Amino acid sequence: MEWETIIGLEIHAELATASKMFSPCPVVDGTETEPNAAVDEFSLGLPGTLPTINRKALEYATRVALALDCEIPPYHRFARKNYFYPDLPKGYQISQYEQPLALHGKVAIDTGQEQKIIRIRRTHLEEDTGKLSHPDGRISLVDYNRAGVPLLEIVSEPDLRSADEAEAYAQKLRSIMRYLGVNHGDMSKGVLRLEANVSVRPIGEERFRQRTEIKNLNSLRSLKRAIQAEAERQIALWEKGEEVRPATIGWDEGRQDLVIQRYKEEADEYRYFPEPDLPTMHLPREWVEEQRASLVELPEAKRTRFLQDYDLAQQEADVLVSERAVAEYFEELIQAGIDPKSAAHWIMGELFALMNRDQLEKEQFAQIPIRSAALAELLNLLKTEQISRASAVTVLTEMWQRTESAAAIVQRLGLQLVDDDREVKREIRQVLEANPNLVLRYHAGEEKLFGALMGMVMRALAGRGKPALVRQLLTAELINGTSNGDLS
Ligand code: ADP
Ligand code: MG
Fold first, then answer.
1. Which domains are delineated in the chain?
2. pTM
């Protein structure tokens, strides 16, 4: 039997605000700060503290929702999600339930062959919890730096059909949030966390089968592997005639395997009720429209424009727009007079190769040591035939290492192409004199020998010959013969 995998993703994105969701307590980088250095009475849930809403978080969340084409209802409301856990000192998390910030969005993903629309069910604001660690398995430590950090939850409809689609979707959302500057997207720091709801069904079956939920996936690689492993597990169960039971599953990064944490025979009971300490929020239309107007051009729109304005392949456009810094760099090159094909080629070919060599991720593109103006200068030397292609790559590699202009490196390494007709003619004559047989056969009609002679002259010029000039002078030399000794 042929099976298909059904996936709905829940993404938790911390919003890059200066302070927490409901108090002025600063937000810090959890991987670089002492535990419990950024806490206040509210993060600790001390009695008598009251929440106030972070305006920036509301703005950021609204921008993401608008970028995902969501509807923003005029009223939304926070709700208490009640449960006990040591990382949640209040005993409840302020979240949203019946009246979330945004509903019914959609986003296009690139599946390799086509664009596919994935529907967004809802997007809501909440506060993050603290962080537990269990250093020796006997004691548990808790760090409340993260408690109260603004968290945006984005829930998709079950529209994804493979681990690859789930990855493309997560990547697209990360790209959008990075464009908007609301989340840095660094999954290793936990600012973006994924949960995958997974079920399988025989191809052709209409209804959905029982799903399970895989929690806390902290990399795209884990996301893919966990979905694949869980789909296989479920298929094996159904094929044995057993049932898939609803379960919460973890992913063991070390063993690269699923860990069934608990089977849940009924839905969790969180006793949600409207948060009594916060008012129903009303977002005026004008305010929402202001947020919409403030949106930067997003990857999808950029992709369409790039395909229209520049002669690019789809795959090139996809890669160039996935990171805002890359897209901007590309257009800066074009503004500096570089043609789009060559700009795309030098970014995706040569710059990405250097990044790869130095183990830089694509998200770190803004940090590369070569500014677009400097690369444009190099590419103009290439365009005006002052250096060869091979030399341009050498110069680029030098520029990556030190702050020296392309022209200065060309000077220093003596890479200028030979512009002097006489020098070129001298080399041509030496080659022709050393190879009288080839010249005879060429004149007897073996025209393809021109290429071989051309190659020899280029080699004699140590790669510094301008192909067009060499071709022209070699043609002239072959027509005139080599005996007239004219060195003018
Ligand atoms: P809950 O509120 O209990 O988390 P939801 O119905 O809101 O449940 O769904 C949560 C997530 O599960 C959504 O992303 C949704 O797309 C996904 N989902 C729902 N049904 C299925 C299914 N049969 N297979 C895979 N994912 C599903
Ligand atoms: Mg859920």
1. 3-289 (no CATH), 297-413 (no CATH), 421-480 (1.10.10)
2. 0.82
